[in-house]
Specification:
Length: 390
């Protein structure tokens, strides 16, 4: 009722109340359920953070064990899903394939579509947590025409994701350093309050479309280069700078030029007007992981040079543009042997618990269907014109 206020891109609109993630963009603070991201990245593992985000508390040992067992019980993906996957050309982008497969899950799990009770909700949640990493790994395998594997039930959530991605036949040598680094990255991506993909999940879910359909929509929203797709775009940009001879100033100038659509990828954020706390941790981790794995990547030096040049430049200072979560993450994924096109898929695996937590919160609070209004700027009433008179 009353006048409609225009708020393009929801810059000023709080669309919901939420008790999941606290974000102070001026101070650069990020907390999940009250716990600082720095402490969680250091001390928790990804599955514990999934539980924390979704159910509100860190799990004790028996809660965590039950959660893990419930997930493992659901981790076999229907064989017919492979037929769906194999219908895609190998050139298909993994994010499009992942979104489609997630949606296709509804066909093979029809009971998970309508959730009436908390038990229904729990069942749908463990199912998607179980099957999503399998689908993510399969998008990579299918591109390389490699055999598709199900989860190894005897190893952890993150280990089994890596194994499904990289195992050759039955063999896969787990590298603890890679596992730890990926665990940390997934935690840092796990939730970020009402960003584009999370708002998408909430709005799709608000029509009581099921969890899997809502997550599939979230994957599509995340794909864009202004959101999660930035991690792929950053590496492509750094490669371009390298191929061009490594002169960052030319690219800084392009980013500042308002007639040039080029933007510094991995820079800027709607909410952070200070360092993105995730970027700080990831930058440090990039140095550590590359050293531990004995990887030398000239792109890391280019990234550091570019960051320094931007942070000293009036244009970026005035607009409070800092490196965001996507700026250094790709360099770590690359050191792990993950192909560039898969980076946003890794982001999606990390963000899954956040999407689930926000969907669950919305349903439990019985929020109304999302239905934004508009400020109409079209024609007033007109008389119909017959086709001969147009
Ligand atoms: N390079 C150059 N200029 C920029 C950049 C950038 N990366 N980001 C913002 N600006 C400028 C923008 O042109 C505008 O300038 P002016 O005031 O002169 O018109 C000013 O800074 C404010 O930007 P905005 O576009 O109004 O800000 P927004 O809140 O609408 O957009 C953003 C936020 C993240 C989409 C944007 O900063 C951007 O496009 N960054 C590059 C893509 C990227 O790294 N995305 C990942 C975001 S973080 C993780 C995630 O969501 O997945």
């Amino acid at each position: 009722t009353g006048a409609i206020t225009l708020d393009p891109g929801y810059k000023n609109t709080g669309a919901c109340e939420s008790a999941i993630t606290f974000l102070d963009g001026e101070k650069g603070i990020l907390r999940y359920r009250g716990y600082s991201i720095e402490e969680l990245a250091e001390k928790a593992d990804f599955l514990e953070v999934c539980y924390l985000l979704i159910f509100g508390e860190l799990p004790n040992k028996s809660q965590l064990q039950k959660f893990n067992t419930d997930i493992l019980d659901q981790s076999i993906v229907n064989e017919d899903m492979k037929t769906v996957l194999n219908g895609f050309p190998e050139s298909a982008h993994p994010m499009g394939v992942l979104s489609s497969l997630t949606s296709a899950l509804t066909a093979f799990n029809p009971k998970s579509v309508n959730v009436e009770s908390e038990e229904d909700m729990y069942r749908a949640i463990v199912k998607i947590l179980a099957k999503f990493p399998v689908l993510a790994a399969w998008t990579l395998r299918q591109k390389k025409s490699q055999a598709l594997y199900n989860k190894d039930m005897n190893i952890g959530y993150v280990e089994s994701l890596l194994k499904m991605m990289f195992q050759e036949g039955k063999t896969y040598k787990l590298n603890k350093k890679v596992v730890n680094a990926l665990d940390k990255l997934l935690i840092l991506h796990a939730d970020h309050e009402q960003n584009c993909s999370t708002s998408t999940v909430r709005i799709v879910g608000s029509s009581h479309a099921g969890l899997f359909a809502s997550i599939s929509a979230g994957v599509s929203a995340l794909w864009g280069p202004l959101h999660g797709g930035a991690n792929q775009a950053v590496i492509e940009m750094l490669e371009e700078i390298k191929a061009d001879g490594g002169d960052t100033s030319k690219f800084i100038a392009k980013a500042k030029d308002k007639d040039d659509p080029f933007r510094l990828m991995g820079f800027g954020h709607r909410v952070y007007k200070n360092f993105d706390p995730r970027a700080k941790i990831i930058k440090k981790a990039a140095d550590e992981v590359l050293e531990q794995l004995g990887v030398e990547d000239p792109i890391l030096e280019i990234a550091k040079g570019l960051e320094k040049a931007a942070l000293e430049d009036e244009y970026f200072i005035e607009r409070k543009l800092y490196p965001n979560v996507d700026f250094y993450s790709g360099i770590i994924y690359r050191a792990m042997g993950i192909p560039t096109e898969m980076f946003t898929v890794m982001f999606a695996v990390g963000r899954l618990p956040g999407w689930i937590a926000q969907w669950r919160e919305m349903r439990l609070r019985k929020e109304p269907i999302g239905r934004p209004r508009q400020v109409y700027i079209g024609e007033n009433h007109r008389k119909f014109k017959e086709i001969e008179n147009r």
